[in-house]
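G., the chain you wanted modeled:
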Amino acid sequence: MSNADDWFSEEVCRKLGNYVYRLIDPRNGETFYVGKGRNNRVFQHARDLGGVDDDESQMLGAKLDRIRAIKNVGLKVIHVIHRHEIPENAVFEVEAALIDAFPGLTNVQGGHASSDRGPMSHIELIDKYNLPTVPLDPPHRLLVININKLEDRSDRAAIYNLVRFCWRLSKARAEKADYVLAVVRGVVVGAFRAQAWLPATRANFPDIPYADGSEAHRFGFVGEEAPAEIWDLYVGQRGKRIIQEQLKHSQNPVRYWQC
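Predicted structure as tokens:
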């Protein structure tokens, strides 16, 4: 057990209730992780550093690497409780807003409903609520993937490269999909046909500069644009809105339809 300065007493825990916290790197003052919790959750990341299994370590690799690097130079993670005594029904929204406010976090996923109600330009908001919608009952088996780093929605090559690499998903279910749809902030911006799903390694994706093998437990696909009639059905000229609850993205960037 470490000293009392990095562990809350029972009395403090009772006072805090639900909270949202930030982990800060003391070497540069950068917030590198945002989370929610109760009691001593905020301290648990550094305390349990050596106790995660291989699969969890792969998922949380960037965060764990940062904590290890801080400890290796004899420093401690700075823990900030950003807001406490948060009502149960609001804690996810507070966490999501804070995740959206700090780019470059090591969080594996965005916060609750971040992709659907997160930061958008006024043009994106107009598109989100004015554009036509995808069919209510899509006639194809679909893999719907959320991408949020797209700068130009008309750049089909950029959309393809973003949506095809790399995801934690069921390869068996992905291979059943007729088409892969790329989504930005609730709007379908691209439709593609996957020809092969492969582990996300440099050998399989030599044209992806950041495919360094560190995410070989994930998958990407090699494929092509969907036929024009399919693109028109799901994307149209400027994109089409997703209104089905089962296809909307929250924390998981991957959604399946009939596959």
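The first strand starts at residue 19 and ends at 25.

Shout if anything looks off.
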